[in-house]
Amino acid sequence: MSTIKRSAPVYDIELYYELRGDGEPLVLLHGGGGAGSNWNLVFADPPQGHRLIIPDLRGHGRSLNPSGEFSFRQCALDVLALLDQLEINRFKAIGLSLGAKTLLHIATQQPSRVDAMVLVSGAPYFPEQARSLMRAVDTENHSETEWRQMREWHQTDEQIRALWRMARAFADSYDDLNFTPPYLSTITARTLIVHGDRDELYPVRLAVEMYEAIGGAQLWVVPNGGHGPIFGPLAAQFVSTAVTFLASDAQ
User: Fold this and answer.
1) How far apart are CA 194 and CA 211, in angstroms?
2) For residues 163 and 172, is the Cβ–Cβ distance under 8 A?
3) Rounded CA gap, 71 and 75, in Å?
4) Residue 24 in contact with residue 47, Cβ under 8 Å?
5) Which helix (H) or strand (E) holds 20?
6) DSSP-derived secondary structure letter, 192
7) What are phi and psi of 201, to 5 degrees?
8) Residues contacting residue 237 through CB under 8 Å, at least 6 positions apart
9) Please, what is the end-to-end C-alpha distance for the chain in angstroms?
């Protein structure tokens, strides 16, 4: 299956993205510190009948972020601008962690555009246990193994340092990610929430809060699952469950 690799001017950046497969559009949004290529570990091939749209989000991978400023709100605007350029009005989407939070912004900013979505390891706000871990993020001292992994995904060492600074800055961010139940209730997309019951950042109660607030949402709590429980042995089960859910027209 061939992959089309492109970049698009959106706001103040060039947003890198890849297109794979044919059919209805399925947007895949990666997690914080990662890149669109991470989805290759989950989707070896595009699901039948879907055209995958896989961006590197602002500041990640091949999408640089010269301003150094980051918000989930702006990430959502970037993705929507890309889809406008691709002339895609309505779509389905899967978001992981940072990507899931971006999807919450997309689904509340322009509810009519999201047909269905899967939120993996998302959160409506940062709980204190996550903020505590974010405050502990070291922006300079990392192991050679960590550097090697990050260099596989990103373009420069300064970009990598900026991502670590971004993660630490989340500890003091309160207005960008602040989804109340009434606000979540404005989401009209069919929604599947996937969450590990051992998530070290976001306790499973946050997934339940989203499940209760988003009308008709479904919830899959992954036993013994940590943050991002869709890789490795769980990838095949996740793909089967997510694709089945996205293909369903049930409300």
Assistant:
1) 10
2) no
3) 6
4) no
5) strand 13-21
6) E
7) -95, -50
8) none
9) 33
pTM for the predicted model, two decimal places = 0.97
Burial of 85 (0-12, 13-18, 19+ CB in 10 A): middle
Average pLDDT over every residue of 103-107: 98
The span from the CA of 12 to the CA of 212, in Å, is 37
The conformation of residue 45, written as its DSSP 8-state character, comes to S
Tokens of 210: 């989203």
Model confidence over 199-219: pLDDT tens digits? 999 999 999 999 999 999 999
Domains of the chain with bracketed CATH: 3-127+177-247 (3.40.50.1820)
Give the Cα separation of 77 and 24 in Å (integer): 21
Which residues is 190 bridged to in the sheet?
116
Distance of CA 199 to the CA centre of its chain: 16
Q: CA separation (Å) from 39 to 78, 131, 151, 154, 223?
A: 19, 26, 17, 15, 22
Q: Residue 164 and residue 143: Cα distance in Å, rounded?
A: 13
CA dihedral sign of residues 107, 77, 227, 225: positive
**Cα within 13 Å of Cα(237), Cβ side:** 12
- Phi/psi at 92 (nearest 5 deg)? -110, 160
Q: What is the pLDDT of residue 251?
A: 45
What phi, psi does 102 have (nearest 5°)?
-60, -40
